[in-house]
Recover the amino acids of this structure.
């Protein structure tokens, strides 16, 4: 009986793990703006290129991330991230944090969307093209 249970547990883990990994896919910057009502207050993950970095303002680093989605005309192509982690302009990164909608810090610093208390990691390399 122990062998059956162990085999069943192993098979279950092997079959479920890819589904969980697939569920953790990154959301596009443009989609964050489109789905902000549903995603506000939730943890999100975004992959993209660092466009701007301001360090240690209000005790945190401010990183602007772009992934080629959204519209530059209305600003939906850029998401601001607050973090204790560091990144450099042009780094390809994966960011995970809480999406905050309509954050107003006063003095004209208002953000329609902000990913707060984020972690930043290097983005996984794209798979090599088949030859």
């Amino acid at each position: 009986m122990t062998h059956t249970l162990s085999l069943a547990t192993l098979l279950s883990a092997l079959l479920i793990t890819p589904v969980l990994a697939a569920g953790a896919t990154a959301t596009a910057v443009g989609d964050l703006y489109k789905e902000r009502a549903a995603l506000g207050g939730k943890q999100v993950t975004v992959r993209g290129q660092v466009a701007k970095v301001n360090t240690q303002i209000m005790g945190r680093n401010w990183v602007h991330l772009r992934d080629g989605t959204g519209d530059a005309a209305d600003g939906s192509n850029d998401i601001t991230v607050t973090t204790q982690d560091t990144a450099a302009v042009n780094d390809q990164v994966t960011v995970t944090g809480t999406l905050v909608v309509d954050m107003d810090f006063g003095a004209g610093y208002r953000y329609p969307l902000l990913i707060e208390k984020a972690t930043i990691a290097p983005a996984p390399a794209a798979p090599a093209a088949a030859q």
Q: What stands out?
A: Residues 4 and 10 are 10 Å apart (CA to CA). The beta strands are 43-57, 60-66, 79-83, 92-104, 110-122. The mean pLDDT is 84. The first helix runs from residue 2 to 23.
